[in-house]
Amino acid sequence: ADRDILSAVRNHTVGSPDMSLFDEIIFVADYVEAGRAYGDCIRAREALFSALEASRDSEECVMHLHRITREILDYTITYVINRQRFLHPRTVETRNAFLSREPMPYQEEIKWKI
C-alpha cells in the first residue's frame, strides 16, 4: 500500500505512461478539485461527473476515466505550450500512451511527409 501511495504522489502532476488506476484517480482528482476555477478544469470536472453518472458499470467508468485523463493531458500540454514553457517529457509520453489505447476515429493510416 505504501508503494501505491508513493506512486500516486509521484505521478499526480505530470502523469506516467504506466499509471495504475489509483495513480490515475489521484491525477484526475487533483486536476478537477473544486478549488480550481480555470475553464479547462471546470470542463474536465463537468465531463467527468456527467460521464460517471451516465456509466452503466465499473468498466464503463474506467473507460471514461481514461478518456478524461487523456483530455486533461491535452489541456495541460496546450496550456504549457501557449505560455511558451518547457513541457515535462513524461507528460507527453503519458498523453501518447493514453491516446494509443483509445480506438482510432477512422481506420485510415496517417502518413507523415517530411
Helix content: 55-70%
Assembly of the depicted chains:
single chain
* CATH level-two architecture: Orthogonal Bundle
Tally of domains: 1
Count up the helices. Answer: 5
CA-CA gap between termini: 48 Å
Beta-strand content bin: under 5%
The count of β-strands is 0
Mass-distribution shape: globular
| CATH superfamily label | Hypothetical protein af1432
Question: Biggest sheet, in brief?
Answer: none
Secondary-structure map with pairings?
Blueprint: H1 2-11, H2 21-32, H3 39-54, H4 58-82, H5 89-101
Helix pairs in contact: 1-2, 2-4, 3-4, 4-5
Textual characterization of the structure:
With 114 residues, this protein is mainly alpha-helical. It has helices at residues 2-11, 21-32, 39-54, 58-82, 89-101. The protein is globular, with a radius of gyration of 15 Å.
In short:
It is built from 5 helices and no strands. It has 114 residues and is an all-alpha fold.
Characteristic key phrases:
mainly alpha; Hypothetical protein af1432; globular; 114 residues
